[in-house]
Amino acid sequence: MLYPIATESRTLTDLNGVWKFMIDRETETVDPASPIPADRRMAVPASFNDQTVDRDVREHSGYFWYEREFSVAKALLNERVVLRFGSATHEAWVYVNGKQAAYHKGGFMPFEAELNEYLEPGKNRLTIRISNLLDHTTLPVGNYSEKKTDDGRLIRNVDENFDFFNYAGLHRPVRLYTTPKTYIQDITIAPEVDLQNGSADVNVSVESGGSFDEIRVTLIDEDGVEVGEAAGAETSISVKQVHLWEPLQAYLYTARVEGVNDGEVVDVYEEPFGIRSVEVKDAQFLINGKPFYFKGFGKHEDTYVNGRGLNEAYNVLDISLMKDMGANSFRTSHYPYSEEMMRLCDREGIVVIDETPAVGLMASFNFDISALERGDFTDDTWEVLDTSEAHEQVLRELVARDKNHASVVMWSIANEAANYADGAYEYFKPLFDLTRSLDPQNRPCTYVNIMMATPKADRSSELVDVLALNRYYGWYVQNGDLKTAEEKTRAELKEWSEKHPEKPIMYTEYGADTVAGFHSPYGEPFSEEYQQEYYQMNSRVFDEFPNFVGEQLWNFADFQTKFGIMRAQGNKKGIFTRSREPKMTVQYLKQRWSSIPEFGYKK
Ligand code: GCB
């Protein structure tokens, strides 16, 4: 799916700004045939939740509406006019002048609709009904319940089956773009690198809406110099003396695609892309044939006021903080991030593990993982949940959206599912097969393994290319006892190495809640000292294993969660506060990561 841009054949209009908004109390029918009786204003893009001091609004579970007017210049009405949402969280019904023009379920993916048949000259009205409900069929997974008040009102409730606040609304840009009636619909780029000769064959395939006499593809380097061209919907262009995209050393080419009819260029689209190879081999993660070491984070899209809404200043700052620490990567925990962030990572050379919103696939979700000590721990997740359909849909959409990004080096199919329970293999096998069949770049695939899915309990790790582990020895278990935690960490890594000697291992989460400014001469849990000692302990063990290929800690910054006795204004495992002030351990990690090279750390 192409990102909306303006070119000589396309226009782009932002519909961001302050919209009308109302909560749907479901006491009266709201009919989008007339302007909705909105009583509030909300900025777009952003979550609605933190833009108000009204607790009922902030914590609302159910339906809500956004509305605004927009005009389309008459000259554009002969073009194809497309309305595009970067996302609407989690389910949306879109009306233009009262008529339904689009519907989409899944809160983290773009969707669009051609508007021509709905548009009127002059002003048009755009109304959106959104639901933030989650249940056992959705991703993420929520525990849904409802009750009636004494006066008969329906109260819906979603108990998040995951550890982040269920922010909702129009989180990403809303835009109108135009294309000619015959247009370039999609572009797929799959470079094949010949590392020995320093060249590449760039395979480009173009889908069009309507038919062109000819499709032309030109590859342009960063200096604006043409380095190759070809014609056809399926082409392969060879690039000599290729400039590779490398972690922290990004280099982006542009594929300029032209659709031609009667000798005239009708539509033009320009797609930036990087040339690099990714491969898992002999317990190593190879980028451009060299063993890469992941240094970085699990993150969230989470900032003050914007909530989960796009915050480009924070995205730029976060990457700047990462680079300053010598980090090179992050995982889009626990859902696909904005297209703007993905493009920024391509540009900045940040390596990304791209995760679906499959989080909470665990019937027994809570913070008590002491059950881990019992070897026989299991549950009935795969009988209780019904998420396969949503999971397949989001994998199709995610690969379609992110397939061309050089920054994306691996797909994470889920975070912390019940991989210790019977049925896990049967659930995941078709999803891995699907992802592998969809990805034109054949990236490695993984899921992120929860602590209870120990080497003995795990039912499905043969499916993954990389063992990506979330481990909390020294926090949720052996809290305050880093000595025992160290032994447990070492013992488990040894067991995994024996079980799958050919698979590289990395940590995709490890962390300790830390209250900024809380110090302890005894290194007590929650203190900045404890957080630092916790990371030092883990680093020591990581360095003992040659097949251990990366450390992504939990979490980049403190973030908002649902209420609970384990959370004080959210999760405090950030090494930065929510406003990005560093905690003490940042200095330690900066020293460590700055001395670990991107390539060849483990020999
Ligand atoms: C996890 C989850 C993450 C939580 C984290 C924690 O394993 O993947 O979503 O926030 O633990 O801090 O408990």
From TrEMBL:
<dbReference type="InterPro" id="IPR006102">
    <property type="entry name" value="Ig-like_GH2"/>
</dbReference>
<dbReference type="GO" id="GO:0005975">
    <property type="term" value="P:carbohydrate metabolic process"/>
</dbReference>
<dbReference type="Pfam" id="PF00703">
    <property type="entry name" value="Glyco_hydro_2"/>
</dbReference>
<feature type="domain" description="Glycoside hydrolase family 2 immunoglobulin-like beta-sandwich">
    <location>
        <begin position="182"/>
        <end position="276"/>
    </location>
</feature>
<dbReference type="GO" id="GO:0004566">
    <property type="term" value="F:beta-glucuronidase activity"/>
</dbReference>
<dbReference type="InterPro" id="IPR006104">
    <property type="entry name" value="Glyco_hydro_2_N"/>
</dbReference>
<dbReference type="InterPro" id="IPR013783">
    <property type="entry name" value="Ig-like_fold"/>
</dbReference>
<dbReference type="InterPro" id="IPR036156">
    <property type="entry name" value="Beta-gal/glucu_dom_sf"/>
</dbReference>
<feature type="domain" description="Glycoside hydrolase family 2 catalytic">
    <location>
        <begin position="278"/>
        <end position="596"/>
    </location>
</feature>
<dbReference type="InterPro" id="IPR008979">
    <property type="entry name" value="Galactose-bd-like_sf"/>
</dbReference>
<dbReference type="Pfam" id="PF02836">
    <property type="entry name" value="Glyco_hydro_2_C"/>
</dbReference>
<keyword id="KW-0326">Glycosidase</keyword>
<comment type="similarity">
    <text>Belongs to the glycosyl hydrolase 2 family.</text>
</comment>
<dbReference type="InterPro" id="IPR023230">
    <property type="entry name" value="Glyco_hydro_2_CS"/>
</dbReference>
<dbReference type="Pfam" id="PF02837">
    <property type="entry name" value="Glyco_hydro_2_N"/>
</dbReference>
<dbReference type="InterPro" id="IPR006103">
    <property type="entry name" value="Glyco_hydro_2_cat"/>
</dbReference>
<dbReference type="GO" id="GO:0019391">
    <property type="term" value="P:glucuronoside catabolic process"/>
</dbReference>
<dbReference type="GO" id="GO:0030246">
    <property type="term" value="F:carbohydrate binding"/>
</dbReference>
<dbReference type="InterPro" id="IPR023232">
    <property type="entry name" value="Glyco_hydro_2_AS"/>
</dbReference>
<feature type="domain" description="Glycosyl hydrolases family 2 sugar binding">
    <location>
        <begin position="13"/>
        <end position="180"/>
    </location>
</feature>
<keyword id="KW-0378">Hydrolase</keyword>
<dbReference type="InterPro" id="IPR006101">
    <property type="entry name" value="Glyco_hydro_2"/>
</dbReference>
<dbReference type="InterPro" id="IPR017853">
    <property type="entry name" value="GH"/>
</dbReference>
<protein>
    <recommendedName>
        <fullName>Beta-glucuronidase</fullName>
        <ecNumber>3.2.1.31</ecNumber>
    </recommendedName>
</protein>
